[in-house]
């Protein structure tokens, strides 16, 4: 497997829904994109595709996810995390779960307008809305487009509770909006921390914020009075599980007030992408890591069964569970996170948002 600077995946595996694909290993394929043998393979540039969405509140019925409604302004994610369970969603768009997922980003330019319309409907019942339920709502392009910020401003206008998960320090840009939500008991932020090892993070999550910047984000949000915690996600047995105590100590010192974790999930094409990534970056540890992942997934690399997806099963999964609980207690982090409320929800009248406050 080639290694592309700034990218998690190094190739595009075939889309399981498509009959035809370009095999770049075939003689003559991609002749115009050839490069000298001794030079680094050029990484593809990110492309952005404008989508006019028809709806923005997505529903899920998974019993092991703590929300049933989510908003995703972007499809695909430039962070390029090699383990991302959402990669196969790009196959529904005719793309690959590999490089396409992190280089071909769908932008729902009308997300804020749709969100205001759907929240204004009398059929809408106030409930927790998750952001980054699939891909990170604070990926790099958000700095320019501000779609997530505009959606949060609307959620704040309606005082609708929202939970955010992100790996990007960029969330600190929106402290002012998050404080408005916090005043209505309507915000919870999870910063995802997989490792404290900068070199590992750079290989595994190439365009996400560095670990120390995520700790800075926790500190900034905590000081601003915003309920912020950590999601140690994913835990990769044999690669990152030993860092759990250090991560929880670090986030506790930064001000995290709750913590959770998820075990690595490798659905469909992600299994092979992750395996190839291990062989490229950690060949000496590959067999150990794969063996341990299989041990927590009933002998397979992935188990989609509800109740098992998030934490796994077996001896190693129980060891991780116990380690996390003990480390969380030693770090002084409460077991329960903040309770959000929709009691303050309102449908504001345009032009009179603060008139009756």
Give a written overview of the molecule.
There is one protein chain. By secondary structure, the chain is of the alpha/beta class. 32% of the residues lie in helices and 13% in strands. The chain contains eleven helices and ten strands. The strands form two sheets. It has a seven-stranded mixed β-sheet with strand order 2-3-6-7-8-9-10. It has a three-stranded mixed β-sheet with strand order 1-5-4. Helix 2 packs parallel to helix 4, helix 4 packs parallel to helix 5 and helix 7 runs parallel beside helix 8. It starts with 46 loop residues before the first strand and ends in a 26-residue tail after the last helix.
The dominant shape is: globular
Kindly estimate the percentage of residues that lie in beta strands according to DSSP: 5-15%
User: Averaging pLDDT over every residue, what do you get?
Assistant: 91
Which sequence of strands runs across the widest sheet? 2-3-6-7-8-9-10
Separation, N- and C-terminal Cα atoms: 59 Å
By DSSP, the count of extended strands is 10
Tally of alpha and pi helices: 11
Question: What's the structural blueprint in terms of helices and strands?
Answer:
Layout lengths: L46 E5 L5 E3 L9 E3 L2 E2 L23 H5 E5 L2 H10 L8 E3 L10 H4 L1 H12 L3 E5 L8 H9 L3 E6 L5 H7 L6 H13 L4 E8 L8 H11 L4 E5 L5 H13 L4 H11 L17 H18 L26
Parallel strand pairs: 1-5, 3-6, 6-7, 7-8, 8-9, 9-10
Antiparallel strand pairs: 2-3, 4-5
Helix pairs in contact: 2-4, 4-5, 7-8, 8-11
């Amino acid at each position: 497997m080639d290694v592309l600077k700034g990218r998690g995946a190094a190739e595009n595996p075939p889309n399981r829904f498509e009959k035809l694909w370009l095999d770049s290993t075939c003689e003559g394929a991609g002749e115009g994109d050839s490069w000298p043998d001794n030079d680094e393979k050029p990484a593809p540039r990110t492309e952005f595709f404008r989508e006019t969405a028809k709806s923005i509140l997505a529903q899920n019925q998974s019993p092991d996810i703590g929300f049933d409604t989510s908003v995703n302004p972007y499809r695909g994610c430039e962070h390029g995390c090699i383990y991302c369970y959402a990669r196969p969603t790009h196959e529904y768009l005719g793309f690959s779960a590999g490089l396409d997922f992190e280089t071909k980003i769908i932008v729902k330019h009308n997300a804020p307008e749709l969100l205001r319309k759907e929240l204004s409907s009398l059929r809408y019942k106030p409930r927790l809305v998750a952001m980054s339920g699939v891909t990170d709502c604070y990926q790099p392009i958000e700095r320019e487009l501000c779609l997530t910020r505009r959606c949060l401003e609307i959620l704040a206008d309606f005082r609708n509770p929202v939970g955010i998960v992100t790996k990007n320090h960029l969330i600190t840009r929106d402290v002012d909006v998050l404080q408005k939500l916090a005043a209505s008991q309507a915000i919870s932020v999870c910063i995802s921390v997989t490792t404290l090892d900068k070199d590992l993070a750079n290989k595994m999550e190439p365009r996400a914020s560095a670990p120390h910047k995520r700790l800075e984000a926790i500190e900034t949000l905590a000081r601003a009075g915003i309920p912020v915690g950590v999601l140690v996600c994913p835990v990769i047995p044999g690669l990152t599980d030993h860092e759990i105590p250090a991560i929880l100590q670090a986030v506790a010192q930064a001000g995290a007030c709750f913590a959770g974790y998820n075990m690595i999930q490798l659905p469909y094409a992600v299994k092979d992408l992750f395996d190839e990534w291990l062989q490229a970056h950690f060949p000496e540890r590959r067999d150990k890591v794969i063996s341990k992942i299989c041990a927590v997934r009933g002998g397979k690399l992935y188990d989609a069964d509800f109740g098992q997806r998030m934490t796994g099963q077996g001896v190693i999964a129980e060891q991780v569970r116990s380690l996390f609980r003990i480390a969380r207690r030693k770090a002084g982090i409460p077991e329960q996170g903040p309770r959000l409320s929709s009691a303050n929800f309102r449908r504001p009248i345009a032009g009179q948002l603060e008139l009756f406050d």
